[in-house]
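Data card: per-record layout.
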Amino acid sequence: GEQLVAVDSPAGRLGVTICYDMRFPELYQKLTYVHGAQVLLMPSAFAMKTGEAHWETLLRCRAIETQCYVVAAAQAGLHNSEGNKRRSWGHALAFDPWGTCIARLDDGADGNGIVCFEVDLDLIDRTRQNMPIHAHRRYDIYGDGPHAASELGGEALPLADADTKGMGFG
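The structure for this 170-residue chain is written out next.
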């Protein structure tokens, strides 16, 4: 895509991405800290090799580092019976803001199904209050400070009570 996508929904503010995006944590940090995402969506068709090695780890990391829910629907099984016979990993997952797996579809490479879970927006708030990583980010060291919300079409999260003097912003 050409821009970050965040939309309001009954389940909270959704940050919408695709599977390969999950390898770029800065995307999810901007969706969270600039656009106010609470639930990060990552539909996927991960290959078997990378799915087995990286799928669950990357999803859990995105949940922990953004303190958002991560929801990853996953295509499973054989895509075609001729040609490259590509297979997708499957294994749809959802994580809460603490990184706990709250939904898992152990469909293997050929299955399908539905799994349900609840999004507790208060859990996001409690997690962020108990560990305010958004206020502890060190832009003075690694740059790329909070982005002007008006430039990206969203609202930046407040930096709580953090001392921002001398950090290149605020």
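Known properties of this structure: Residues 147-170 have pLDDT under 50 and may be disordered. The first helix runs from residue 25 to 33.

See the next section for split statistics.
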